[in-house]
């Protein structure tokens, strides 16, 4: 456990720098409505109200007109298999990072035309809506962000690109049996602003909530004896277990949730382009780019998936 704790702690502290020449004022000019209309307000968690399109609306045109024409994307650099900085190569890697690169390639013809911004779980909505300060604003968030009715009131989501569900993690041999009464008086860690945080607010089963900026911080607290269990997405739980084999899933996964790419609500042309990428990304069955990325980063801990979730 000590080795894993040292690794996770070192990853948490690695910052992401800003691209040279990217002016905050330059970014701010992008905060305008786009020409592609949203169809209707709904709470469909699988399918966006915005249809796929290759058209450049106002948002994309403004992004391309920047002094440094790059997409600014909020990501995680601490979630193994999803978005993390490889300690050996110092490069960002993971399933979400592959998707970001595909979006940049679609818009610019260059998968490297991206400025990555590390955002915590609780910063995702604020970063999109410009409440994280001049250096915190992003065009998109691609960070294991679950689509929910409440979040859809604040941001615009793409079609769902991954299926997950909440899961309790505990040390092997623990008396904790899942999201149930075995959590009474136990210290359960989750990330501020996460679906797990919202679930525990609704029903904690008598648990003491421990809140941290990122899911990885929960692993460190568990290892240090500052928490008894973790509640997070099953997809993120797989990465935590890969980093520390002394923990395991406790009980069954809770009902399904779905990840989506998020943008500011007015930037419909940007989400329309993302949805085009997602449509193309999953085309080709076993040979699709979605499947190739899944096999590379996630299949070992999350076996049996054949593609992204589909409406209907």
Automatic annotation (TrEMBL):
Gene Ontology biological process terms from the UniProt entry: amino acid transport
Transmembrane portions of the chain: none
Alphabetic keyword roster: Signal, Transport
Record domain Solute-binding protein family 3/N-terminal: where: 70-301
Pfam families in UniProt: SBP_bac_3 (PF00497)
Keyword match Transport: yes
SMART domains (UniProt xref): PBPb
GO cellular component, one term: extracellular region
Entry-linked CDD domains: PBP2_GluB
InterPro entries: Bact_solute-bind_prot3, SBP_3_CS, Solute-binding_3/MltF_N
Protein family per UniProt: Belongs to the bacterial solute-binding protein 3 family.
Name of the protein in its database record: Sugar-binding protein
Organism: Streptomyces corynorhini
């Amino acid at each position: 456990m000590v080795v894993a704790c040292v690794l996770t702690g070192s990853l948490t502290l690695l910052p992401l720098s800003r691209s040279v020449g990217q002016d905050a004022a330059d970014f701010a000019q992008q905060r305008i409505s786009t020409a592609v209309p949203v169809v209707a307000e709904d709470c469909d968690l699988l399918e966006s109200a915005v249809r796929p399109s290759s058209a450049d609306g106002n948002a994309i045109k403004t992004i391309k007109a920047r002094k440094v024409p790059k997409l600014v994307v909020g990501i995680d650099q601490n979630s193994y298999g999803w978005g993390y900085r490889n300690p050996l190569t110092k490069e960002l890697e993971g399933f979400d990072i592959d998707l970001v690169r595909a979006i940049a390639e679609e818009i610019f013809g260059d998968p490297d035309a991206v400025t990555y911004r590390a955002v915590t779980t609780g910063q995702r909505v604020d970063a999109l809506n410009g409440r994280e300060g001049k250096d915190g604003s992003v065009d998109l968030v691609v960070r294991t962000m679950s689509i929910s009715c409440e979040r859809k009131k604040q941001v615009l989501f793409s079609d769902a690109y991954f299926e997950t569900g909440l899961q309790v993690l505990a040390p092997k041999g623990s008396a904790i049996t899942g999201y149930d009464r075995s959590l009474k008086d136990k210290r359960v860690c989750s990330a501020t602003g996460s679906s797990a945080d919202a679930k525990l607010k609704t029903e904690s089963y008598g648990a003491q909530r421990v809140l941290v900026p990122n899911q990885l911080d929960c692993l460190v607290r568990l290892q240090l004896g500052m928490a008894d269990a973790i509640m997070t997405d099953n997809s993120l739980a797989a990465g935590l277990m890969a980093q520390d084999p002394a923990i395991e899933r406790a009980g069954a996964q809770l009902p399904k949730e779905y990840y989506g790419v998020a943008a500011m609500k007015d930037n419909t042309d940007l989400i329309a382009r993302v949805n085009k990428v997602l449509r193309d990304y999953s085309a080709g069955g076993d040979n699709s780019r979605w499947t190739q990325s899944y096999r590379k980063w996630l299949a070992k801990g999350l076996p049996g998936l054949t593609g992204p979730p589909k409406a209907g």
